[in-house]
Structures are given as C-alpha cells and as structure tokens.
Amino acid sequence: TTTHQRPSKNENGKDEIFQREVNQVRMTERTNLKAPKESSNIRVGDDSRRNSSAARKPGVHKVLSLDMTQAPRDPRAIGQFGQPVDLPRSHDADVRKRWDEGQFNVYLSDQIPVDRAIPDTRPETCSKSLVHDDLPSASVIFCFVDEVWSTLLRSVHSVLNRSPPHLLKEIILVDDFSTRDYLKEPLDQYMSQFPKVRIIRLKERQGLIRARLAGAAVAKGDVLTFLDSHVECNVGWLEPLLERIYLDRKKVPCPVIEVISDKDMSYMLVDNFQRGIFKWPLVFGWSSVPDDVIKKNNLTVSDPIRCPVMAGGLFSIDKNYFYELGSYDPGLDVWGGENMEISFKIWMCGGEIEIIPCSRVGHIFRGQNPYKFPKDRQKTVERNLARVAEVWLDEYKDLFYGHGYHHLLDKKVIDIGNLTEQIELRKRLQCKSFKWYLENVYPDMDAPLVKAEGLVFNRGLRKCLTLQKGSLSFDICDLNKQNQHFNYTWMRHIQQQGLCVAPQVRKNGIVMTSCDNTKPELRWFHKNSNSAENLIAELVPNRMCLEAEPRGDLVRLGPCEPSSIFQKWQFTHYIVK
Ligand code: UD2
Ligand code: MN
Asked: Where does it primarily localize (predicted)?
C-alpha cells in the first residue's frame, strides 16, 4: 500500500481500520475541563507481563502543560486551534497548483501560523498524571527530503513550544539531500535563532532509514525521539514517553498519532484503544484492542497500549538500547519496512512497544509520497520487506511470500542483498522465535502455516494420493496412513515432509522432488471451495493439470479440462477459507 491510511477489508469482509478513525475536536468542548478524578500513576496495559519497573517509585512531578496550546499568539489567524479551514472556491486553482509540493494542501498550510494552537486532546487524567523529575533528556530527530517549509517549521515549533526545556537536549534536522533551495541557506538562517536546533546534510540521498541513523549517530541526548517532518506535537507529549523509558529502558513508547487533515489542515482526535498491527504480506494497519483484552486488564483510556508493530515514524527509544538492538538494518532503502523490522526486533529480543495515550502528536497522512524514489517504489518496499522476512519470520516467511510476492524469490528480478550481519545479530541477541512473537504479542493474529492439509482425494478414482518408496500413486483413503498426508502450503506446494509434487513436463509425468521456494514450476494453483477443484501447474509451459489416470492408479500431468472428474482434488481440511 502507499500509505498507512488505506482502508481495506479482511477476508471475512470485516472492516479493519487501516484508515485512522477520527473526530473533529471543537475547542469549546475542551475549554471547561472537568476536575479529573484522582489518578494513580500510569499502569501497565497487561498483567501477564513481568514488571521490571517494580523498583522505581511513582513519579512526583506533574506533566508540564506549557501554555502554547491554549494561548495562540494570533487568535484571529486561520487554522487556529486546529480548526478546519474552508477556503472559498476561488482558491481552488491555487490549492491544486501547489498540492504536489507535499501531496497535501500546501497553499493553505502556508497561511496558517507555524506556531498555531491545537486542542488538547489527551484523556482528562493525563494533565494530572505524575512523572519523575530526573527523566532522561531527549534528542528529537527529524529527517526530511524536500519537506514543505511551513510544515517543517510547524513541526519544529511544536517541539520547541511544547517540550519542557530541560528535557529537550536538541532537535536534529537531517536533510536527506533535498533539492529545494529554501531548505538550504534560508533554513540555516531561520534555525540559527534556536540554539537547540542542529542541521546535518547528507551528501547523497540515503532514504529515511539511513537518514535517521545519521541523526542518531550525532545525538547527545539519552533518548532518541524520531518524528516525521510534518507533525504537530501536542501539549505534554514528551514527558509521558520519557517516563516510560525511565521506568524500563527496554520500553519503546509511541505517541498516539492523530490526524492533521491533508485538505483543511484541521487537527483531529482519533479513537481510543487503537494499536498498530500488520496483515500479510506485512502491511501495517490500525485496529482496535480486542474487547476481552480491555476487560481482562481493566484498561482505561489513558493506560499504555501494547502494540504488536509501530507505525514507524514517531517513537522514543533509549539511545543505548537502540544500539544494543543493532539500530535499523542499514540495508533498508528509502522508505518502508523499517517499522516492521524494528518492531519484530524489539519484541523478539526482550523489549516492548507501547502506545501512550497521554502523548499525542498530529501527523499529515498523505495519499502518496511527495518525493521520488531513486528506484522503482514498489520494488524498493518489497525488497525491504523481504529482508525483514528473511531475518525475522522463520517458517512464517512463506506467508509473506505466499501473499503475492513470489517474484521476490527470483534473484534476477530483485536482489535483496546480504543478510549475514542481520542474521548474526539475531543470534547474538538470542532473540525469540517468530512463533513466540505471534503467540505472546499478537495472539489474535491468525497465521496458519499451511493453507490446507490432510488426504488428497481424487474425485474420479475416489482414492487418495499416496507416497510410496519415493513415488506417487493411489490407494484407498485412510487417515491413519501418514504417507497419505500432504500439506498445501503458502508457496502452493503439495508437500510431504521436505518433498514436493513436481511436474515432469516433457513426459507428462509427476515426480517428487526437494521443495524449493525459488522454483515456480513447483506451485499448484488450487481453489478452496466446498467441492473438489483442479490443481493447476500454471507456471509450466501451456499450463497443465494434475490428473489421475483412470485405469492404472497413476498420477500424471494432462491438459486442463474443467469437466474432467479425474482432475478434481480435495484436501481433508482447508485452513484458509
Ligand atoms: C510511515 C511513517 C514513516 C515511516 C514510513 C515507512 C508515520 C506517521 N510515518 O509513512 O515515518 O516509518 O511509514 O518507512 O508513522 N524521508 C526522508 N528520505 C526519504 C524518504 C522520506 O528523509 O528518502 C522522510 C520524509 O520527509 C518524512 C519521513 O522520512 O519526514 C517519513 O516519510 P513519509 O512521511 O513519506 O512516510 P509516511 O508518513 O507515509
Ligand atoms: Mn509522514
């Protein structure tokens, strides 16, 4: 997908919230804050976890609420308080003309103050929650390529204005080889008024992953906080993130990412209890925390939410811990996949990812990337994901490849590069398996290792495939016979142990051969339905079908004939509906 906000339906037709569910916030609703009930310190969102922070005492200081949010400099300016701006139709042409500069309403953004107020969208208890007074300091890192001037400035101002000065070590702007002139001298000049802001320039386009690494390499704070360059940090956003790391340095807290409209620039509140998840083939999305988890853990709207994967752009991490984890795989290019990589790495190697509802940051979600990819966009992202799959997914990587990325297995099409160091790292850190991750971190994810299994029944012969002494034949169906059990895998292999049913094209025969993901001819296309269906070798010349020879109990390859019952096959169990 292009961005994190695409709506999609899952297999059951149920809506998954790949688009953030948002509510427009009216400032008036928030001006008379009711007195919040006495709040305890933030609780951990799941009782099944060890509490490594037991030794730490609860915090003693209130989250600082600097006044910028409620008191804008120019209350009459448009877009003030994060309100939507409805420009008169006469501006349509201007809006359209400048849209592509950032893939959002750049024309409007340029007219909104760079230090505008936005509504305090935190749950009520947040302003009363306590944090420690000796929190670690943060280096905030923005990397950008050709970011729009007004959004870049608004991002920086929101950090300067809404972070307690003693906790903000510095802001590092990493220019990923932008081409626009205003991002050169004018930016240097503008930022020179803020001693905390540093700019580093990359000599060639590195992509956001290596750009973030360049920023991290020069950071002096205890904690790295990564942000996209078109955000607005809300009041009190930083302290709750640092507090979590203070309590446990292996926690990786993320703010709630709220939505700044790409059209009217309004700041919108998102629904509570949202967490980051993925679907195959490693597509990020948002979904609600399951009700039973909320009930079982008595979760309130301000409790941290355990998060299987992070969106990627906005999070804090203890700097030393970031490097202990091997930072990012530097072999990831330009954009995409790094959020999966760091998420799996954190969970499988002993850390935790949380969304902290008291920390909120608005982000402009865009329909398209506004910058060019040095190489093909889709291939770049797929290649990144394949690196992640190869290193972290174990036997589950077939689910990734099986959901439409077969061509990645062809080295001539995409070279995913050397993975030795990443694999070594995983060993050195003694990280847990992906199976452990699925069971413990994302148990509501359905990830069956095969699509179908059991006996392979032929409707014409009314017998089952049987593997005897290395070759295939038929026998009376018998669930007790292990040599009649086959798996139909994500790679579309018909497999028993490590052996795969393979077409022998020239002889129209069938042999058993070692399974190999890179061999397309081993894939059999098969519809899962209530009746028996063909098994089609689609990737051999002329597309052939698996069939039973009616008289001799032999299995062979034949031209596909939709009506032939000797070409109809059924597995005992279809796991993937
Ligand atoms: C999301 C993340 C983003 C990143 C991406 C996957 C959020 C809100 N955003 O997509 O941070 O994890 O998924 O990789 O979670 N940039 C560069 N060099 C490049 C490309 C991008 O510096 O070659 C900068 C860009 O200017 C921006 C940041 O990296 O500040 C993220 O890029 P994006 O905003 O296009 O990504 P987004 O929000 O669609
Ligand atoms: Mn972004």
From this structure: Golgi
Q: What is the pLDDT of residues 85-128, one digit of tens each?
A: 999 999 999 999 999 999 999 999 999 999 999 999 999 999 88
Name the burial class of residue 476, with classes exposed (0-12), middle (13-18) and buried (19+) by CB atoms within 10 angstroms of its CB: exposed
Handedness of CA 1, 25, 128, 36 (dihedral sign): negative
CA torsion 354→138→142→349, rounded to 10°? -40
Q: Does the pLDDT of residue 32 top 60, yes or no?
A: no
- Contact between residue 556 and residue 458 where contact means Cβ atoms under 8 Å apart: no
C-alpha span between 33 and 35 (Å, rounded):
6
Among candidate residues 109, 190, 95, the one with its CA nearest the CA of residue 154: 109
Q: In ligand 1, which atom is closest to the CA atom of 284?
A: 13
Can you give the pTM of this predicted structure? 0.91
- Per the CB < 8 A criterion, the answer to whether 269 and 348 are in contact is no
Residue where the block lists tokens 């060019």? 372
* pLDDT, tens digit, 9 for 90 and up, residues 306-317: 999 999 999 999
Name the closest-CA residue to atom 26, ligand 1: 144
**561: which residues sit within 8 A by CB, 6+ positions away?**
545, 567
Nearest to 268 by CA among 81, 15, 398: 81
- Evaluate the CA torsion angle 392, 395, 396, 401 in order and state its sign: positive
Residue 250 to residue 242: CA distance in whole angstroms: 12
Which residues are placed with Cβ below 5 angstroms of ligand 2, an ion?
228
List pocket residues of ligand 1, CB cut-off 6 Å.
Answer: 3-4, 143-145, 147, 176, 207-208, 211, 228-229, 257, 311-314, 334-336, 338-339, 363, 369, 371
Eight-state DSSP code of residue 129: -
DSSP state at residue 433: P
Distance of CA 528 to the CA centre of its chain: 29
Which ipTM score applies to this complex? Answer: 0.99
CA distance 329 to 207: 12
